[in-house]
Write a structure and sequence with these properties.
This protein has helices spanning 4-10, 14-18, 31-39, 73-80, 93-98, 114-124, 155-166, 192-212, and strands spanning 22-25, 46-50, 85-88, 106-109, 128-131, 143-147, 174-178. The chain has 213 residues and is α/β, with parallel strands linked by helices. The chain has a single domain (4-212), classed as Rossmann fold. The two termini are 26 Å apart.
Length: 213
């Protein structure tokens, strides 16, 4: 049976997974791994939003990129995960403010644009799981879960907190971040052992939240 081992693990709570409706914002190095882990865990009612196309530089860390250079990411992932709903769109703060999030049980933020992350937090914090930055790191064992206000060391997470405070945001939501100091290099050098682990950590946190409901 396809989900037999999940049923053994989650027992009577297993049905909660397949009944959950998720919005996944961003399907790059973090989001694509979160999508894969959730989909394999029977959570197939997932809407994915991304505006990007695959480039050669994505091959080292993004699921779906093999053989798909130049293709729209959400269209390619729709082929690999047929039950998902794919939206090819850039999530700007303006679009987020107008978007209807009410139909989703959980919103995942796997985007890297700070203004859009702030807008998502303000609109969806009660059901939000957000990812901080996984670039410039080598050690996946430094990945942690925390309340947004408890994020430390991670420069991206600290910038996120600062902009939330500037926006007058005082609520809580869960984030995945790393306590590993990023390497001091130019550009966003990334290792799939970390970015992929971020995505898997996001999926784990989402499953835990579902099982608690």
């Amino acid at each position: 049976m396809k989900y037999n081992r999940l049923e053994l693990l989650f027992e009577d709570d297993f049905e909660k997974l397949s009944n959950t409706k998720i919005l996944l914002c961003g399907v790059g190095g973090v989001g694509s791994f979160a999508l894969d882990a959730l989909y394999r865990s029977s959570i197939t009612n997932i809407t994915i939003i991304d505006f990007d196309i695959y480039e050669e530089s994505n091959l080292n860390r993004q699921l779906g990129s093999d053989g798909a250079i130049g293709r729209v990411k959400v269209d390619r992932l729709k082929e690999l995960y047929p039950n998902v709903n794919a939206i090819n769109m850039r999530l700007t703060p303006e679009i987020i403010n107008e978007f209807d999030f009410s139909e989703f049980d959980i919103v995942i933020d796997a985007i890297d644009d700070i203004p859009s992350k702030v807008a998502l937090a303000k609109k969806t914090h009660k059901k939000l799981v957000s990812s901080c930055g996984g670039a410039k790191r080598l050690d996946p064992t430094k990945i942690e879960f925390a309340n947004i206000w408890d994020v430390i060391i991670d420069p991206f997470g600290k910038k996120f907190k600062y902009e939330l405070k500037q926006a007058g945001f005082k609520e809580d939501f869960d984030v995945v971040f790393s306590t590993e100091n990023p390497k001091k290099i130019e550009g966003l050098g990334s290792f799939v052992g970390v970015t992929g682990s971020f995505g898997l950590a996001v999926a784990s946190l989402v499953v835990k939240k579902i099982l608690k409901t």
